Amino acid sequence: MNSLTETKRNPTDWQGPAMQKRIARRYAAERRFKALGMAAVMLSAGFLAFLLVVMVGNGFRGFTQTELPVDIDFPAVTGGASASQFEGPNANANLQSMGLREIVDSSIEIQYGPDGTELFSPGGWTAVSAMILNDPDIVEQKTTIYLPVISDIDVAYKDAGNPEAEEKVRELGDRFSTGFNWNFLSHSDATDPMQVGIWGAFKGSLITMVVTLLLAFPVGVLAALYLEEYAPKNRLTDLIEVSINNLAAVPSIIFGLLGLAVFLNFFGMPRSGALVGGLTLALMTMPVIVISGRNAVKSVPPSIREAALGIGASPLQVVFHHVLPLALPGILTGTIIGMARALGETAPLLMIGMRAFIATPPNGITDPATVLPVQIFLWSDEVDRGFVEKTSAAIIVLLLFLLTMNALAIYLRNRFETRW
Amino acid sequence: MNDDLTMQEASESANMTDSAPTDMASEASTPKMTARNVNVFYGDKQAINDVSIDVNMDNVTAFIGPSGCGKSTFLRCMNRMNDTIPIARVTGDIQLDGDDIYAPKMDVVQLRARVGMVFQKPNPFPKSIYDNIAYGPRIHGLATGKEELDNIVESSLQRAGLWGEVKDRLHDSGTALSGGQQQRLCIARAIAVDPEVILMDEPCSALDPIATAKIEELIHELRGKYAIVIVTHNMQQAARVSQKTAFFHLGTLVEYGETTDIFTNPREEKTRDYITGRYG
């Protein structure tokens, strides 16, 4: 049979048309694959570029505010207040008793007519009090202060708003100016989009991340080291491994429910606090760190362990002097991924009350706080159109936070990286 | 194969050499390490079958034999490196200066400092040359100050014949050295903790002939200061560096005696076959 087919076989025609066709088909397949791959890369790059352009385009306006000038003749309206009143310990009391709001309102009415105050953001006058505390000398002179307009006019001036606001913008056209919205970086949530700020949510995110890192990193690394270096390989450790892998795949909102049930209801920790948020996110981050940590520990060459054992290092010394330093870059990579996921997480935090309206930045881990993604979620839900650009601006802050965190982690990873 | 017979012959030959008058007889009667009836199992598989052997201070002892004959396994029993393999089980009796190294009161960490090891593949730590040598003395607290540590590093490197080549770049990475230098660094690292026995597991198999010659020269110089046991595939190497040779085959010790006897006048047919290159 074998010899029969052998004899029947014709000599291969390497130059024949069938062969040429096959070659052409192979080349075409290669070209197709290349083109598809490039198309895929271009598509993802395009989406990213689109996202960035839209975000930066919209978000940039969130960092600016539309202002109108207000001339305040302090000596006239205050009846000769002196700068020294607003210095030292009594400054705040004196400021409150001078009726600044009325002073500002009356100045506005003089220049913009009896309905003039309706042009301005209701909380705008507080900027004047901050200004006085900063530089008391202005109460002894006539000054021009730029105050933010109401949200409707702000939207109308920057983009297209409702007809009334558009009318006002046409009317006062050349008197508007645009200033940098420092409030946005230093204030917290507010009901007026002209007064909102990202600082509270930013600080909340920062504190929550610190709690998460302090808990998830050591626990995750120790668990990875123990499982990889010490634990006997048996059914129990197999079960633990499977559980950890499953834990990493559990939807995040379920961790939120767990946090609600355990930390809030059972342990009675303060609701909405960064502590509970951090704990919940740590539960979510830990499996990621354990898995990547185990892989990193596994990839440390056994010859290094043998070398250390061979000169009489104890197992603990082997782990902490040799294995951990060599595995650290890999562990840090996993930590970056886990922390980045935790930073962007919204769902579990909604469950534990971090979606509350929080107008003062948290000062500790138990203070009510919110975080950047939750703040973005809350603002995106607002009716007032002024919140649209604030949402985009908050997204930019969140992305910058994320980039900074990743850059730091990559820097650390490269520092610890050992070249063989 | 008749195991009992082999065992008997092996111990006979060991006894013979022990009592035989040699040119270095002074300490030959008090062996540094003794192994009696050692068996090693990996799970159900028996890797070492009833091996008894003595290692002397003044001799370099070579273990030879075909691949998979158990010589490395036996070597790793001598400083309990086999403990790191969960399925490995050792029975029998191995003593260092009369103390059972498998006794519960024996501290493995200290044992491994006293019985140092050099591995097949050079495995310096990815640290500086200085830190490679200083690591052992540091963890065992052998140096009280920076100066003493410097001295240990220098003397260890000098003994390993590496000082002249690396003295100007002690803070470069140990992994940047050539293969032969790395292996000498590993020997220096083993010497630095002041061991009594040095086990070498095919230390030259990853090296070129020139680097091999340097290591062999080094083994000659270290002889007498440490009890040295070397596992080698290379019979010429065994003949060059050792005074005693043990021939392993399929997990048993076939013959143990003076290197010159083993190579010129082996008692066992298997040994003769292996020496003359009929198998292995």
Tell me the layout of helices and strands:
The complex is a heterodimer of chains A (420) and B (280).
Chain A (H helix, E strand, L loop, with lengths): L1 H7 L8 H46 L1 E10 H5 L12 H7 L2 H13 L12 H10 L7 E7 L2 H8 L4 H10 L4 E4 L1 H5 L12 H32 L4 H14 L3 H15 L7 H25 L3 H9 L4 H29 L3 H5 L20 H9 L5 H31 L4
Antiparallel strand pairs in A: 1-2, 1-3
Helix pairs in contact in A: 2-18, 5-6, 7-8, 10-13, 10-15, 10-17, 11-13, 12-13, 13-15, 14-15, 15-18, 17-18
Chain B lengths: L2 H17 L13 E10 L2 E11 L4 E5 L6 H7 L10 E9 L2 E2 L7 H7 E4 L10 H12 L5 H14 L3 H4 L12 H14 L4 E5 L7 H14 L4 E5 L3 H7 L2 E6 L2 E7 H6 L4 H7 L5
Parallel strand pairs in B: 3-8, 3-9, 6-7, 7-8
Antiparallel strand pairs in B: 1-2, 1-4, 4-5, 9-10
Helix pairs in contact in B: 4-5, 4-7, 5-7, 7-8
Q: What does this 3D model show about the protein?
A:
The complex is a heterodimer of chains A (420) and B (280). Chain A has 420 residues and is mainly α. Chain A folds into two domains: 62-180, no CATH class; 199-416, Orthogonal Bundle (MetI-like fold). Chain A has helices spanning 2-8, 17-62, 74-78, 91-97, 100-112, 125-134, 151-158, 163-172, 182-186, 199-230, 235-248, 252-266, 274-298, 302-310, 315-343, 347-351, 372-380, 386-416, and strands at residues 64-73, 142-148, 177-180. Chain A has a three-stranded antiparallel sheet. Chain A is extended, with a radius of gyration of 32 Å. With 280 residues, chain B is α/β, with parallel strands linked by helices. Chain B has one domain (3-122, 177-275): Rossmann fold, CATH 3.40.50. Helix content of chain B is 39%, strand content 23%. Chain B has helices at 3-19, 71-77, 108-114, 129-140, 146-159, 163-166, 179-192, 209-222, 235-241, 259-264, 269-275; strands spanning 33-42, 45-55, 60-64, 88-96, 99-100, 115-118, 197-201, 227-231, 244-249, 252-258. In chain B, a hairpin with a 2-residue loop joins strand 4 (88-96) and strand 5. Classes of the chains: A mainly alpha (420), B alpha/beta (280). The A-B interface holds A 232-233, 301, 303-314, 317, 321-322, 326, 418-420 and B 79, 81, 84, 86, 109-114, 116-119, 121, 123-126, 135-136, 139-140, 173, 175, 186, 189-190, 192-193.
